Amino acid sequence: MRKTAMIVLGLIAVVLCYFTFVSAGEAFRADWPLPRALDEQQARYRLLLITQELETPFWNKVGDGALEQAKKVDANLQVWGSYGRNEDDFLKKIEIAITSKVDGIIVQGLDTAEFKELTKIQAGLYGIPVITVANDVPMQESLRRTYVGSDHYSAGRMIGRELAADMGPAGTVVLIGDSRQQYYQKQRLDGIQNVLKNYPDIVTVYAETADARESVIAAAGDVMNRFPDTDAFIAVNANIVEALVQAIGKRFQIKPYHIYSFDDSPESLSLLKEGKLDGMIEQSPEVMGRLSVDLMVKWLNGETIPLDMNGYYTDIHMLKAMDAP
Amino acid sequence: MTSIQKKIWLLASVVLSIMAAIWIALTYYNQKSQDQYNDILQRYLRMNEVTIASQQLVAALNNYLRSPTPKQMEELQAREDTLRQTKFEVQSLRNTDNDFELSNYVHLIDSLVGTTDRSLLLFQEEKDAEASGKAFSEATRIAMYISEMTLTLIDKELNTYDRFYRGIIEQSEALKRLGMWLLLLITFLLALFTYWFSLSITRPVLTLIQAAKELSRGRFDLKIEVASNDEISFLAKMFDRMRININNLIVEIQEKAQLEKELQQSKLLLQESQLRSLQSQINPHFLFNTLDTISKKAYLEGSEETSDLLVNVADLLRYNLKRLDRSVTLYDEVRVLRQYIEIQMARFSERLQFYTEIDESCLHVQMPGLTLQPIVENAVIHSIEPREEGGVIWFRVIDGPDRVTLEIEDDGPGIADHKVRGIMEEHTFETEGHSTGIGFSNVVKRLRLFYGIPDVLDIESVAGSGTKIVLKLPKIRGSEAYVQDLDRG
Question: If exposure means fewest CB atoms within 10 Å of the residue's CB, which of B356, B369, B459, B464 is most exposed?
């Protein structure tokens, strides 16, 4: 009896002790992962990648590539930008970046006066190097150090050749582009037309539209009304391709048309997979990110001076619907 | 300090130290979390200060541009200094997570100061109101960016410290749990400790109470043992000593009572024999005179033998009546014994043969009266009377170094064992035809009382071949008190 009581009491004591110690351990644990405090700014380059189109597959890849490279060369890189091509926000971000005196800005080129004013005057005032990525703005207008991205002219040529091969040497081609007439878009158009002018039987029609969805549909409808015997569409600006496909789909079967575009819009790849696009130009966004950071750091380190004014072209190739997985 | 007090102090100090330990731990912990909260708040406040300072700077610049008085200029300078000050403070908030933003932040502040200065310069030196206004609007924008950046930073801060904050919340929860468990544990342990502790005080008391109960019931032989090291054990020791003393006293009293009882017994015995002697004292003078007269008459009638016999009878009777309550010498006893034998010789003639061997040098030994006669009479009654052919009785007095040995031996049928034992244990038997009415056991008792030693008398009896009674009388009396007592009684 006495022994049992002793054992029971001992057990109770052990259990109580155990729980007390466990909860004491919880209560007095002080190992929260606090960020290490820094007294001085670290001697690392602060770089910014600024884009208009955050969280799109294309720009995510650019960002990933850039971050990866930044990590490799121990630079501090952040990706800023606006969502859904909000220009005001985008420009504001650039201004903040400039007034924050970052060491270098890698920016998606925007062919507007404000952009040029910012990169040319403001950035110049603070002495901040700017590299355009993916979309270029002419050097003399933006005072960019260099451009990293696809050669849009040759991309246009590539798509023109592809069209000619697919469609044959005769037919009507509708080129639809953004009414803002961005620099890269112009280059693409130039490239396409440069190829197609060798085929006298191919008629090219150029239509412009604002990038709002309704106007794209309206413009597409208008073009189809005017040229009912259209054989092919090329969305020179990838951002309108989804609306374009929808507009065509409303009226006709999509199949008989040859539709081409570029990969720098969120919808391009999925449309290609669905077979609604016949082909698109695939660019190398990761390489763009990596290369731009690499070049920026090299420039800041004084390793590569001057940078190639014309830009560093990254790889492009044609992706056809049948190749798509 | 006494030890029960010590024990109570111990208990109190254990409880006190546990409480103090808990209090210190909680206070320390509280202080720590308080410091953490302060740090966090400090961070937020500093960031907010930057926003406020930058907005104030812009406002001051605006005021100055509108009305460029020295007072406004002073104000503007003061604001600028404040902003620089806050900039330095904000520098200390840098950590690995917000390094980038904080650098931007600091540079934004620099830009703001720079732009403000530029605006001032344009305004004062170059009087270019338009350019100055442009710089001012830029400063306004930068101030706006600063406040946005503040929000971004605070946001970042919240993200960075999210786990930390949650940790604090969890910790306070854990602390609550700890409090509960600690309370349970301490309650339990204290209960155990108090139980043990109170037991260590009360157990000896209980033992003591038990012992006291036993004592009050009259049991003085149980040892009182208390296994503790406080006053109770001291008390118990004292109590035990008291018990031993009482026990000793009681034993003494019992012994005394025993002695008293024995005395009483011997007195009764004496009275009994006196009574008997009185009974036989019926008009002794008449009897003696008659016996004398008969003796003279027998002598005159020529029967000398009868005359001597009658004189012997008369002497024996006289001795019997006179000597019972005194000590006498062996010499007297032997003389009376001879007279008695002579009477018996007359009775049994040749059937009784009596032989004596007496060492005359020890006849002065003191002994109680009427000792030998009853023993010899006993021998006569048991070994001569019933036997047709008669028997032999030997009587010897042998000197020893400190004792005189008297031997009375007969060749009769012996005494049965149980009877011998009865005699030695002083049981009274019915006396068969003793002339003096004094039995064997009476003799034994008186001898023992007289000398105060138990082994005065010994009986060696072999069935069918005789009995030998040995008396060993000390030459010096062991118990003088006996006689005195007798004299007083």
Answer: B464
